[in-house]
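Friendly challenge for the regulars: who can give me the structure tokens for this chain first? No prize, just bragging rights.
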Amino acid sequence: MNGAGDFEAFAASRAGRLFQVAYLMCGDWHQAQDLVQTTLAKMYSVWGRLHRGEDDPSLDAYARKVLLRCYLSHRRLRRSGEIAVADLPDSPTALDDRTGPGTELRLTLVAALRTLPPRNRAVVVLRYLEDHSIEAVAEMLGTSPAAVKGLSTRSLARLREILADDRELLLQP
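First reply, four minutes later:
Bragging rights claimed.
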């Protein structure tokens, strides 16, 4: 039998068991099917190096290891994904508080940011909203850390002037 035929026999005989393991790990029928398909595709790409005999126990161990790694990789990628809820709220404001009392304050902050020159705005956003270091911002902007510090100081001073009374409200949790 040729290499492709050997792989087809291996995949046909092991797919059911791989699916059972995948389903027990993830608890989702469709995701388990995807994991098995990905596992078999990865094994096929290296089959020539793996195949030693029809009933080689190391092939099963390798298949389980690939399946586990595919599952863990998929879990890491989905960490920031959707969150399932049992009941949806009646109004969108319960899901997203963009129409609450803080809306005007957020609009004021956005308007204040717009008054800053583009580089200054970029420094404020990258430093304080995206939480990047001074060095990282300097690298992104192609400038020195000292320049970022200066832009940051001037930008924050300007924002304090513009926001004046609203500044205290912005700092509340």
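The chain has ten helices and no strands. The first helix runs from residue 3 to 26. Your move, everyone else.
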